Amino acid sequence: MSKLSRRTSSATFYTPAGQRARHGSGRGSHGRQDLKGSDQVSAPRDKAAEENNYLPAHGEPGPEAQRSLLRLRLPAHRATSDVMAGAYPFLAEAGLGSAGVYIGQDAWSGGGFCFDPWVLYQQGVLTNPNCLLAGVVGKGKSCLAKSIATRSIAFGRRVYVPGDPKGEWSVVAEAVGGAAIKLGSGSYNRLNPLDAGPRDRALTEDQWQAVLRTRRRVLVGSLGESALGRALVAVEHTALDAALTRAVQGSATPILPAVVDALLEPTTSLAGASVAELTRDGRDLGHALRRLVAGDLAGLFDGPSTVSFDPTLPMVTLDLSGVQGSDQLIAMVMTCASAWMESALASSDGGQRWVIYDEAWRLMRQPALLARMQSQWKLSRGLGIANLLIVHCLSDLDAVGDVGSESRALARGLLGDCSTKIIYQQEISESPHTTRELGLSSAEHAQLPDLQQGEGLWRVGQRSFVVRHITTENELHLFDTNARMSIDR
């Protein structure tokens, strides 16, 4: 190797400021002769460059230069993002930014993944803050939901769990300084679903009374529909209005037994309805609601509340593990309990809150409760809440009502009103159904059967991520739902 070659390979490859090359410009005779690449190199060397071991400004002349005569120029190329994604298949999504709750690691890029529906809504990434979480048993979806809930508290969010059928959230609520209200066997707690609740200070007295009347009317109507298993007819609505009016006149804070008594034994007629007609029209409804005060739910909602709801707590859950019975019974209890929380949700100074429906597949089978859930989904932006619906698989929606029924339409409406969809591992037989329901691409569909425990496909708006949920040891211990399956227990 010549001296020039050695210097070209090992020098520092820079030209000191102020130095100008006296040759090798590529335009003079010396440059043309050198670029022809022969043994006739006779151009004078830059002695200062040789002595100080740096390259001239325009590079070395001669065959060692390894330069072309003309500069390489490529025309600019423009294409759509879909085409460029095929041209550069190894580029990963940049993520959603660092604002919000840390979830874990983006499996495609290796970077951290953060999520906050309120921030993303403000940025225009989402059209609503509601979320769907689906996955087979044992793949970590419950752990993810609890991580999102507890980590959001550090950002000023509050968490409400209006129904916890398995009692898994109680220990979590107590650990973060919240409250777990247990109902059913083994508990003496009693809730009055007709409680006024915290008053919205933004409303006048007349406005507040109007809101209270509407809330109570909707609640008792939903309870009646759940108990009867059908929608109320016109004369039953009239009988219910008369009974509720009488109950409110008898006490500033009415209780359900007073409404039931007024349905079964009305004392005042209305225009177009005599006392006898009200008695006949409200008979079925009265006996259906009697189940809440004298039947298998006696002791839960048949008197004044023995516990209070504190909307300032970071987390409040209703533990329904002590309520035994059918899904209809659970739905009726949740209807009463959720109404108890709605006054705090509707408050103008309530702040931003997560409302988490765990084991929602049991709840969506009840049309009345489903309608109340849809109302919260539609009003989520105005209320400042983000609903999280947790199911095992999307085929659970097929168990809601008959094909073409209103209940089926409501259930699918909840799915359509979730801008964020988190899918954990699905059974192979469920993957095609999930793909059709969510409109997944072939690449997204291929991920579903191969997702490992703690991994989920996140569909955030029109963007997709595969995220590995990362938890601490303390969180794993707190969120563990497999304690009873442990051999060492």
pLDDT averaged over residues: 77
**Gyration radius, to the nearest Å?**
34 Å
Largest sheet: 11 strands, mixed
CATH class category of the largest domain:
Alpha Beta
Could you state the CATH homologous superfamily of the largest domain? P-loop containing nucleotide triphosphate hydrolases
Query: Could you tell me the number of beta strands?
Result: 11
Proportion of strand residues: 5-15%
Overall morphology: elongated
> What's the number of helices?
19
CATH architecture of the largest domain: 3-Layer(aba) Sandwich
Are there runs of 5+ residues with pLDDT below 50, and where? 1-15, 20-43, 484-489
What does this structure look like?
The structure is a single chain. The chain is of the alpha/beta class. It contains 19 helices and eleven strands. It has an eleven-stranded mixed β-sheet with strand order 2-1-11-10-9-3-8-7-4-6-5. Strand 10 and strand 11 form a beta hairpin. The longest helix has 24 residues.
Q: In a nutshell, what does this entry contain?
A:
Helix content is 39%, strand content 13%.
Q: What is the secondary structure topology, with strand pairs?
A:
Elements: H1 3-10, H2 29-35, H3 47-52, H4 81-87, E1 101-106, E2 112-115, H5 117-122, E3 131-134, H6 141-153, E4 158-164, H7 170-175, E5 179-184, H8 205-228, H9 234-250, H10 256-264, H11 275-281, H12 283-294, E6 315-322, H13 327-346, E7 353-357, H14 367-378, H15 380-383, E8 385-391, H16 406-416, E9 420-423, H17 431-438, H18 442-447, E10 455-460, E11 463-469, H19 473-479
Parallel strand pairs: 3-8, 3-9, 4-6, 4-7, 5-6, 7-8
Antiparallel strand pairs: 1-2, 1-11, 9-10, 10-11
